[in-house]
Amino acid sequence: MRHTSRSIRRTPKVTPELARHRATRAEYLHALAKLQGTAPEPPPEPVVSASERCHCGAPWLLSGGRKICGWGLHDG
Ligand SMILES: [Zn+2]
Questions:
Q1: How far is the CA of 58 from the centre of ligand 1 (A)?
Q2: How far apart are CA 60 and CA 45, in angstroms?
Q3: How far is the CA of 46 from the centre of ligand 1 (A)?
Q4: What's the pTM value of the predicted model, to 2 decimals?
Q5: How far is the CA of 70 from the centre of ligand 1 (A)?
Q6: Dist. CA 61 → ligand 1 center (Å)
Q7: pLDDT per residue as tens digits for the range 4-63
């Protein structure tokens, strides 16, 4: 018996904002684990020079090795 679940898929759309929120939360949980000394491995933090800034003027925020807007206003 085959079930076609494709028609009833109700996957919520993952917006860039939501993706960033998840990344931020993962980062937070990792920082928390690090504080508690339960982090599996400290990820190497890429060094971003202070002169490097987002086009909107916000300092870069490193999340998962990627640079995101420090003010979290947008992507890129
Ligand atoms: Zn920005």
A1: 5
A2: 13
A3: 19
A4: 0.32
A5: 7
A6: 10
A7: 556 667 777 889 999 999 999 999 998 888 888 876 676 666 666 656 788 888 888 888
